[in-house]
Amino acid sequence: MAEWLSRPHIEKWWREASDIAAVEADYGPMIDGADPTEGFIAMSDAHSIGFIQRYLLADYPEWQQTVAVGVGVIPGLGIDYFIGEEAMTGQGLGPQMIGALVTESWTTYPDIPAVVVDVVQDNRASWRALEHAGFERAWQGTLASDDPCDEGPCYLYVTYRPTP
Questions:
Q1: pLDDT confidence of 10, banded at 50, 70, 90?
Q2: pTM over cut 0.85
């Protein structure tokens, strides 16, 4: 994680410290089960290529209220993701990774109707990956967030549970 987070194509959007101590402080509680966010390493041909995490919006009420500006207060999931190996970007792996987690989430969280994602408007590759994974743009503007990853104009994307 530390190596990926220090790479320019990640660091530009995932604005957090990448030294080992900071990564341990940020991700250790998730691994230890003290943080309700779930993290996954994305694999392709037995090689780790990226990271994706999901969380219940209700576990982060301030964030749930922040994204309510575009999607209302819904019992949804949030996700964050990146392809850590720059050579693997632009090959359709982002939408595959996102789509696989969303599909699995419908089973793991049978009462959750939606997945919501915020993305900085300038991060075209990220919002295009969401669109290719079936998400729709629900809102654009500037979020009231103290997270540096959300600075500036953002989009909110949402996908809803498929109806049978």
A1: very high
A2: yes
Distance CA 110, CA 155 (A): 26
CATH number at residue 43: 3.40.630.30
Task: Assess whether pLDDT exceeds 90 at residue 100.
Answer: yes
Question: What CA–CA distance (Å, rounded) separates 135 from 147?
Answer: 23
pLDDT at 148: 80
> Which residue, among 67, 17, 52, 60, has the nearest Cα to 35 in the 3D structure?
60
**Strand partners for 158:** 116, 136
Eight-state DSSP code of residue 127: H
> Which of 103, 94, 21, 18 has its CA nearest to residue 52?
94
Q: How many domains does the chain have?
A: 1
**Residue whose structure tokens are 């998400």:** 135
Q: Tokens 């075209």 appear where?
A: 124
Farthest CA pair distance, the chain: 46
Would you state the structure tokens that stand for residue 129, as one six-digit string?
């990956």
Per DSSP (E only), the strands in 95-149 are 114-120, 136-142
